[in-house]
RNA sequence: GUAGGUAUAGCUCAGCUGGUUAGAGCGUCGGAUUGUGAUUCCGAAGGUCGUGGGUUCGAGCCCCAUUACUUACCCCA
């Protein structure tokens, strides 16, 4: 048997002890905030039936689904004609399950299946990995964890305001200060489209203006022109995109412009609803005493693709770091419609932990403590010492101290190197000399200092030292 | 799916217009130091140069194919 080079699928990663500790630090921060705001945890299976997943993410999304080959003789129902007809015909016969692509669709499925048990409004959070058969690149993985929080069964804009508060709190707690929470409303975008008087297609418009910060005015103009928008329409689009000033000022300018273009006829829907919604969210935030309005940016160009959002939409960008959005979300009015339960409104958002990790690493914002190592290593001098050292080790653990004995008798140099590399702060030396005197030596590896003390006092001393570290 | 780039030791990379036995740093292991690490010194192990073919007297280097990785686009967290 020839030795093969081991590998993992591209776009996936191993996480070593330090990385796991750091990821847990991020998960913990997010979880605590979600729970403080009243969200309850939910977990769903890694795999879903393909019928649940397909058609929910558009044609491109379907291609990015990982499908799971049926067990047993998966090819037994495939005919020669199927093969000739291509993958589309063969797929449903060989695969009936797939890996979850996001957490929102499984959540919708869960809500529909449990509609009789749920008390509305239902607030849930979910922290689980998702899989996409994408081409990996910077900040883009094929297996990554999403942290979603959604409320369904209420149209209250209080939820939107609280989302802003949660995003701000999580990112601030993680040490980030320079980030922008972008907010917009699908109604506002629709208003811009309606103001054009029926030129081009609405999705084309949204996709194009979403790229403004990336490809600039020129790029967006070209793209719109290619998509059949007239120069006149394009000019009008940019008039809207150039609204400027504070949150209130932008709202006022848009209201005036929309009024002039006659798209505010229905005061309870579309553009008018968009403006009043945003106004109200801002009002709630003021009532909450939200301090960081400088981080909240009403961005008319924010569109978030072609997804199912119908109301407010959010996206968070860390400034001065080359990284896509680390959080995003919005309100949807018909999430569960595809599963036969129409008219259920909800709003939710998601943190991309893997991207947050990359950002924190780049900005060196991980705290020192986010490493897991035992507090103390007991040196192993000889077999005879075990009668002294093993009871001591047991007592340390019973006292709640993380400790270990170097598993084999070997040169002290090696044991010291081991402690050093693992980041173990204290080393306990109980060799023949110390044992004869009923003493132990405790070495602080960081300071390089040693103290000798009666073996009966070690545990209380270590407890003091570990308390100091917090 | 589209377009580039890269592939040499466990890791990060040198390797001249094609020329004899492919190098360094870090890491690993051993020793200086049989009871003291992170700084010193000495030594050792470790590579069929991603894979297959071609050109050539001769290929790590040139050509073709292939695979993997990577960056950007599309899309997205």
UniProtKB/TrEMBL annotation:
Swiss-Prot/TrEMBL keywords: Aminoacyl-tRNA synthetase, ATP-binding, Cytoplasm, Ligase, Nucleotide-binding, Protein biosynthesis
CDD domains xref list: HisRS-like_core, HisRS_anticodon
Biological process, per Gene Ontology: histidyl-tRNA aminoacylation
Enzyme class: ligase
This enzyme's EC code(s): 6.1.1.21
GO molecular function: ATP binding; histidine-tRNA ligase activity
Catalytic activity: tRNA(His) + L-histidine + ATP = L-histidyl-tRNA(His) + AMP + diphosphate + H(+)
Any one cellular-component term (Gene Ontology): cytoplasm
Domain Aminoacyl-transfer RNA synthetases class-II family profile: start-end pairs: 1-391
Residues annotated to bind L-histidine: 102-104, 132, 146, 150, 304, 308-309
Localization of this protein: Cytoplasm
Name of one Pfam family that matches: tRNA-synt_His
Record-annotated membrane-spanning stretches: none
Family assignment from sequence similarity: Belongs to the class-II aminoacyl-tRNA synthetase family.
UniProt xrefs under HAMAP family: His_tRNA_synth (MF_00127)
Known partners and oligomeric status: Homodimer.
Protein's name according to its UniProt entry: Histidine--tRNA ligase
Organism per entry: Solirubrum puertoriconensis
Gene that encodes the chain: hisS
